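Sorry, can you check?
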Amino acid sequence: MDTVVIVLGIAAGVSLFTWVASVLTGDYSWVDRIWSIVPVVYVAVFWAGTGFSDARLALMTALVALWGARLTFNFARKGGYRGVEDYRWPILRERMTAAQFQVFNVLFIVLFQNTLLLLIALPASVAAEHPSALGALDLALAALFLALLIGEFIADQQQWEFQRAKARVIAEGGTPEAQFVSTGLWRFSRHPNFFFEQAQWWVFYAMGAAALGSIVHWTLIGPVLLTALFIGSTYFTESITLSRYPEYADYQRTTSMLIPWIPRERRAAEAQGQTA
């Protein structure tokens, strides 16, 4: 059977499951729980379609498996598999009627996000259709993917340690010195974990493009839509944070939203030093 048909069948089954589960449980984070798993399955299916003989697909599968393992670990330790729902969905439910939210659930949470998880994996199908020997470019892209993976791990670990320390202070009846993390990698980006996450899938797309021998391919839609999703989600998330912590506005003013960059106050000080 064609691997594309198999992957489409899996995607349809996963979409149906996440929709039924959300309706039966009233919990709308089921797509979050399969987010780090199904892309690994999709890429592995394309590799299996070559009889596990294609070196590039073996490398791509290994990289995505590492991505999935790291994200699964981070999601699990935050309680994602213990029924903890994405905090944004209750806020949206308050802003919508019950019928409106159910439409949002079907069209965005279930269909759009599951389609996106399929699209970001499709560079593997390009590699399967255009087999060739691994080259220096493939290895360079793999090294970049791993570097970005490590960056995301560090960013998530810094956030995890901050939130645990904050929770301890609150549990002891104290007031945290800071309400949100702004040190480490978070000094250079308000969402470094989001940046590294998106960048990994752009690199994954580049690996498919390298197999094809062309910079542009229609599977570019995957990382483009992923970036659009993250940007939209970031604006919504930050609006919630700003409503809770007015001091977040200063953090927004001085720190890049996604791409890590020198904080603005440091750039201003450096500019003043150069003109002095």
Q: What stands out?
A: The chain is about 70% helix and 0% strand.
